[in-house]
From TrEMBL, chain B:
Gene3D superfamilies found in the cross-reference section: Periplasmic binding protein-like II
Recorded family membership: Belongs to the bacterial solute-binding protein 1 family.
Alphabetized UniProt keyword annotations: Periplasm, Signal, Transport
InterPro entries xref list: Bact_solute-bd_prot1, SBP
Cellular compartment(s): Periplasm
Record flagged with keyword Signal: yes
One Pfam family it belongs to: SBP_bac_1
Species of origin: Bradyrhizobium zhanjiangense
Protein name per Swiss-Prot or TrEMBL: Extracellular solute-binding protein
Entry keyword annotation includes Calcium: no
Length: 321, 452
């Protein structure tokens, strides 16, 4: 057993051996191992209570007919019925398609814009730090704040966005509604998400660009490689792992996007921008279809987890090259 | 090593501290036993209730605490609380559609014995409010709430614009009749079209404001005002839950088409997701000639310095080709079954039911459902909107109040918004899909749904 106090005790003059031993035992009441467990235990308990237990419970509920608004009805085991219902429901597939389109377009735009911004910021110029801070501001805001103020910006009658478009195109400002028109609303959520998160992609890309050693570019200069050739042969290949990481993070985040879109459009007009996370929230906490929504949550979890795993394997292959 | 010694003693101190905190917490809870928490929505009448509640505190010594939540999250917040058997609310003013679920799930205390003991008779209240807010099953003598806040959908209009000679003559020239508050939906649409895009005092104005909100209940609470009057019913009165051919009747489809036409022709730009507050903003800023909204907001609008007083007028929801109804709003007050202070909560209800308190409730800006108040001879003259309120309460219809109402409501929100705002499919297709959705919900609930 590890002793704790012996070196200090040994230096105390006039203390008898039995007294020392008693003191040691008293302080030793809790062993190192116990102390370590005591400190880890709350974390483990918390993890079990708020992660593992709900997950297991949710899996159990997904096989039941539980509806919390009708909890007086007997709980029935329905096997895979909830899963079958979801996978054969055309509406759910449409929501998944809407979500996929949102993820693809917003992540693609964020990568292009974020990478472009990183290339600009990577150069030293006057006011470099100031502009970096300005560019990073959107991602520091809460999605709820972003949703609310973009709602105001996009308001057809008083919103500056419509006036800006009107100034540029001559179209009357109140003749279109970015959040209220079926043709524009999906692009609006992509636009706002890109505005908010392109700086995040920029940061990751910037880390990639700064990790490329200067001597590689110096060697390319010696070989008289053009800037375009340097970009294609050095910059882009060496930042690809970082770009892929950014795509992974943003895709997972956007797959579960809820707050910003809910505030901007509530999934409307109609169900045009109803992402699958909004469907899940409505099923779980507005319709109270607990069994059904648990099954939907599991399907989404497995989808994201599976896709992320495949992607991470691809990322590792790219890194190994 | 010393760190470990210190940690040992800190652990003991922490455990002791936590135990002491627990003791103090318990002590504090004991000191607060004479306090009631009342849960409701955050809106104008809630402020009136706070004012009224001061009298209760004076009389009983029980402190009143309020938990008011904005309408957009009111149902989510409190249904979650009730579902989880929380103890936040001792009293709750719950929406009329909750009554079925609250009764079946035993979230509310059944009040029959209490009413008998305290001689509170439901015959003393406006019948529509008793059926709408208190009874479950409907039309049975089982009471779960005391009618607290009577409400219905009504309309406001710009009386000052209507009375301008140049506007009157322009209207008469166009439609061959006098410009007056509409009695039918066709008249309403004409008026809305007349005002749409018109310049008044150098400002472009719009015809009408109607509910279009997608997330909670908005567009449903708006469209039903037209649907009822075109012939829509929730089910066959002779065969409960038989909806085929009733919900999606050709008349109902015409009503839905009309609502869409009204939305397309005569509302302000961007009103694609608008409910109570957006309507108030549109009216107060002088943007619209006609506004659909709940009577609960009318006292506040009447007091508004810019559009209130002589400038505002009120009218009852117009009739349609097949009837004259309006959407019921409002709520009853109930005692939450999980409350530890049920006796105090019942004492509040007993106090609230008194005619003098109900009279003051109306004067402060709440809407009493007590006959002694609303049937008093001077009631119609007591407020500019009182006659319209009285008439409306006689023609109200309410949405489903089944335990599964939330699913039924969200299905309707989706189908109607898809058709009206997102231009998806036809009115008939929207209602056919709604019947399909509702049939599925009722079957899950274990109800027999006849197809014909």
């Amino acid at each position: 057993m590890t002793t704790i106090l012996q070196p200090d005790d040994a230096m105390i003059p006039g203390v008898s051996e039995p007294a020392k031993s008693r003191a040691t035992r008293r302080v030793r009441g809790l062993s190192d191992r116990t102390i370590a467990w005591l400190f880890v235990a709350p974390t483990i308990a918390l993890l079990l209570a708020i992660n593992i237990f709900p997950l297991v419970w949710m899996i159990r509920l997904s096989f039941t007919s539980l509806n919390l608004s009708m909890s007086y009805l007997p709980l029935r085991f329905v096997g895979l019925d909830n899963f079958t219902d979801i996978l054969t429901d055309e509406d759910v597939w449409i929501r998944l398609q809407t979500t996929a389109e949102f993820v693809i377009w917003s992540v693609a735009l964020q990568v292009v814009i974020g990478f472009g911004l990183a290339l600009l910021i990577n150069r030293q110029f006057r006011g470099h730090s100031f502009w970096t801070t300005i560019i990073l501001l959107p991602m520091m805001l809460s999605p709820a704040v972003v949703g609310n103020f973009w709602t105001l910006l996009l308001q057809p009658q008083i919103g500056p966005f419509n006036y800006l478009i009107s100034l540029l195109t001559g179209v009357p400002p109140s003749s279109f509604s970015m959040t209220g028109q079926v043709s524009l609303a999906p692009w609006t959520i992509v636009l706002v998400d890109t505005w908010m998160w392109a700086p995040y992609v920029m940061l990751i890309c910037l880390a990639g660009l700064r990790s490329i050693p200067d001597y590689i570019y110096e060697a390319a200069e010696v070989d008289r490689a053009s800037p375009w050739r340097q970009f294609w042969s050095i910059t882009l290949p060496m930042t690809v792992p970082f770009l892929m990481l950014a795509v992974l993070f943003r895709a997972i985040e956007n797959f579960k996007m809820f707050d910003m879109v809910n505030l901007l459009t509530s999934g409307g007009p109609g169900s045009t921008t109803e992402l699958v996370s909004i469907t899940l929230k409505r099923a779980a906490f507005e319709k109270w279809r607990t069994g059904y929504s648990s099954a939907l949550a599991i399907i989404l979890f497995v989808t994201v987890f599976g896709a992320a795993n495949i992607y991470v394997k691809a990322l590792n292959k790219v890194k190994q090259r | 090593m010393r760190t470990f010694n210190w940690l040992r003693s800190s652990t003991a101190t922490t455990v002791l501290g936590a135990a002491l905190l627990g003791i103090f917490d318990g002590g504090e809870a004991a000191a607060q036993s004479k306090q009631l928490t009342l849960c409701w929505a955050a809106w104008d009448p809630a402020n009136a209730l706070v004012e009224l509640g001061k009298d209760f505190t004076k009389q009983s010594g029980i402190e009143m605490k309020y938990e008011f939540v904005p309408w957009t999250s009111y149902a989510d917040r409190f249904l979650n609380e009730l579902n989880s058997h929380g103890k936040l609310c001792d009293l709750i003013i719950g929406d009329s559609q909750w009554i079925g679920g609250a009764a079946e799930n035993k979230w509310y205390v059944k009040l029959n014995d209490f009413f008998d003991k305290e001689k509170i008779s439901m015959n003393d209240f406006v019948p529509a409010t008793v059926v709408g807010y208190s009874q479950w099953p409907k039309n049975s003598p089982n009471y779960w709430a005391l009618p607290a806040m009577a409400d219905a959908v009504g309309w406001t209009y710009r009386k000052d614009w209507f009375s301008r000679p140049e506007i009157q003559s322009a209207f008469k020239a166009k439609y061959g009749r006098d410009l007056a508050p509409p009695k039918t939906y066709d008249e309403l649409k004409q008026i809305a079209e007349f005002f749409q895009g018109r310049e008044i005092d150098g400002k472009k104005v719009y015809g009408a404001y109607i509910f279009t909100e997608r997330g909670s209940e908005g567009i449903t609470m708006g469209v039903t005002n037209v649907l009822y009057n075109y012939g829509f019913s929730y089910d066959n009165p002779k065969k409960p839950y038989q909806m085929q051919g009733i919900v999606n009747s050709p008349e109902a489809a015409k009503g839905l088409e009309f609502y869409k036409e009204l939305y397309k022709c005569c509302t302000a730009p961007g009103m694609t997701n608008a409910y109570m507050q957006e309507g108030l903003d549109a009216f107060k800023s002088g943007q619209v000639a006609l506004q659909m909204n709940w009577f609960a907001f009318f006292p506040g609008l009447y007091k508004d310095p810019n559009v209130g007083g002589d400038k505002i007028g009120f009218f009852v929801n117009p009739a349609g080709p097949n009837g004259h109804f309006t959407q019921l709003g409002g709520q009853g007050i109930s005692v939450v079954a999980t409350s530890d202070r049920k006796d105090d909560a019942l004492a509040y209800i007993k106090w609230f039911a008194q005619p003098a308190v109900q009279q003051k409730w109306w004067q402060l800006g709440g809407y009493s459902a007590l006959k002694a108040v609303v049937d008093a001879p001077d009631f119609p003259k007591s407020a500019a909107f009182a006659p319209q309120f009285l008439e409306s309460m006689g023609i109200v219809k309410d949405f489903w109040a089944e335990p599964s109402y939330a699913q039924l409501l969200l299905d309707m929100q989706k189908r109607v918004h898809d058709y009206v705002v997102a231009d998806k499919g036809t009115a008939q297709q929207a209602l056919d899909l709604l019947v399909k959705d509702w049939t599925k919900v009722f079957k899950e609930q274990g109800k027999q749904v006849a197809s014909q």
